[in-house]
Structure to design on (291 residues):
């Protein structure tokens, strides 16, 4: 499979170019969302493409959309591409409903890690939610919590509390998003557990379509979630994960200051990262990933 870090579809109008996805407008008003093989870490995109990454992200999202569709409608229409488009779009693309994105990153955490751990260590809270004393790195929380953040156009998203969230999207809508997100997380985490995987946390995005809230963007991929192998789980330390661990370790080792431009990654790091993404797909779905 060809490695694609940027698409230029002359026949379609570009809708947006995110860190990972290139999205186009289709003549009928729907969107063509293409997951490229770009990789971002610390919110910076790397020059190398990661072979198969776009297909892993797309096929995992499809898997989860199917599993979760009973909880909330999603934006997926089809994976059947209009004729005349290049072959390399296959397996990395979806046709989706164009929704009005709701400007809230709907994060759910079942375990303490990342920015949640940082806030807990400083204030004993996560997104303003008080937590019991004595929790450690990677501790399981008493129950999953909804810990939204803003969607910043540049730089890192900012964690916010219930009150700020309600102000941002409206109280009623905020409560609805929280309820749906917690349900989605619980269902996904319960399923992941049957596959020997801990879903530590994840981020959902929602949009409005015909006056209804629908799930949009990617869902439960290694880019939007922390997945940990259950058999290696040990409270009190960071866990190995199914994603960019090799990239993060490498850039730490060369002392990159995490400001753009990102350094080029050695072949070995790229290769191992591909293997991690494919392993995540296979572990979660129980299916062999076609190379
Ligand atoms: N159905 C949809 N309708 C409209 N916009 C969508 C839809 N699904 C996803 N999006 C938007 O498309 C973009 C996806 O691109 P990508 O994930 O690469 O961006 P990103 O760099 O992560 O930016 P962001 O932080 O906004 O997600 C996101 O901004 C997301 O909100
Ligand atoms: Mg995104």
């Amino acid at each position: 499979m060809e490695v694609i870090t940027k698409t230029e579809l002359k026949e379609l109008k570009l809708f947006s170019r995110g860190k990972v996805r290139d999205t186009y407008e289709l003549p009928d008003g729907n969107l063509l969302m293409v997951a490229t093989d770009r990789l971002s870490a610390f919110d910076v995109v790397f020059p190398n493409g990661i072979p198969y990454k776009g297909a892993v992200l797309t096929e995992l999202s499809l898997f989860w959309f199917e599993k979760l569709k009973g909880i909330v409608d999603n934006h997926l229409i089809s994976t059947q591409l209009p004729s005349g488009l290049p072959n390399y779009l296959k397996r990395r693309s979806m046709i989706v409903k164009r929704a009005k994105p709701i400007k809230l990153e709907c994060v759910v955490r079942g375990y303490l890690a990342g920015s949640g751990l940082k806030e807990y260590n400083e204030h004993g809270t996560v997104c303003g939610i008080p937590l019991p004393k004595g929790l450690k790195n990677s501790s399981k929380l008493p129950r999953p919590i909804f810990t939204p953040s803003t969607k910043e156009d540049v730089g890192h998203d900012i964690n916010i509390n219930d009150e700020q969230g309600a102000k941002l999207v409206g109280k009623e809508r905020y409560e609805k998003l929280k309820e749906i997100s917690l349900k989605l997380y619980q269902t996904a985490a319960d399923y992941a557990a049957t596959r020997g995987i801990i879903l530590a946390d994840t981020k959902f995005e929602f949009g409005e379509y015909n006056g209804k809230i629908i799930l949009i963007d990617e869902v439960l991929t290694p880019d939007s979630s922390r997945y940990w192998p259950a058999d290696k789980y040990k409270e009190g330390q960071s866990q190995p994960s199914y994603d960019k661990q090799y990239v993060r370790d490498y850039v730490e080792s060369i002392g990159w200051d995490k400001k753009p431009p990102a350094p080029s990654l050695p072949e070995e790091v790229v290769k191992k990262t591909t293997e991690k993404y494919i392993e995540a797909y296979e572990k979660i779905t129980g299916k062999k990933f076609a190379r």
Observations:
- The pocket of adenosine-5'-triphosphate (ligand 1) is lined by residues 16, 18-21, 23, 31, 75, 96-99, 101, 151, 205, 207, 216-217 (CB under 6 Å).
- Residues 171-194 form the longest helix (24 residues).
